[in-house]
Amino acid sequence: MKIGITLPQADGDPNAPLRYADTRAAALHAEEAGFDSVWIMDHLLFTWGDQPPVGVWEGWSFLAALAEATTRVELGTLVTCTPFRNPALLAKMAAAVDEISDGRLILGLGAGWHEPEFTAFGYPFDHLASRFTEAMRIITPLLREGAVDFHGTYQRASDCVNLPRGPRPGGIPILTGVQGPRLLALTAELADAWNTAWLARAAELPEKTAPMEAACASAGRDWKSLELTVGQIVTFPGLARQEEFPGDMQRHTFSDAADLAREWQRFAAAGVGHIIVWAAPDNDECRGLIADALRRYREGSGA
Description:
By secondary structure, the chain is α/β, with parallel strands linked by helices.
């Protein structure tokens, strides 16, 4: 099972703003520590109630730079919000980053969910599932065959070609991070991988994966041919405050690195192909413990 980690990208502290150099350093440290992949998010801002907005660096600009800065790790988007960009252009962008990285991109795609950023930047928030479906109908053939002719309600690409092609003749692996019957059926039809997030324990998997397994069965697809990936929030005792934590902090708290390594062994036994870890908080201490867990997991030891 591969283990990846998300990179710092959101800037919530006006007194010590996050710089690209910080994100780059985190990527290089992850590569040196032996992680299989690093991941960026695709958000524009976060607004929670009456709290001040939290800014986020534009993900694809950072991703292109990281493709040049790193040499081995895979680079993923968890996940690209398809309504933010023309889908044919997004396919071109993905091909370019895959070229820069010499074939290390994993293209994670999603429909979007955080309405305040759509409103602030002028993107429509209606019919997200339909818009995502049409985006997939354009992006997938452009990456796999290099051409598409599609005319939908929301998107179109007329006799469009994606040239030059990237380094992988079969195209870039497409991962979706979606829910709901329509988009799970679309995933079963078109995607290479699917992400369920945000989890903590392998015991949570059966309930989460059952709808996707059913969608694959309905589509006549072998469920095991779709790579199962998991987004996992991880913290350790004393590192996070409940008021700053998304959801049930106790569920995501691991006693130490060995405890986390043992949980990864359970995920692997359950058939997960790739874990993507979100460190909470995203600081050196938490990342160091996760890197220690990676070493223990690779050694086959939870001790």
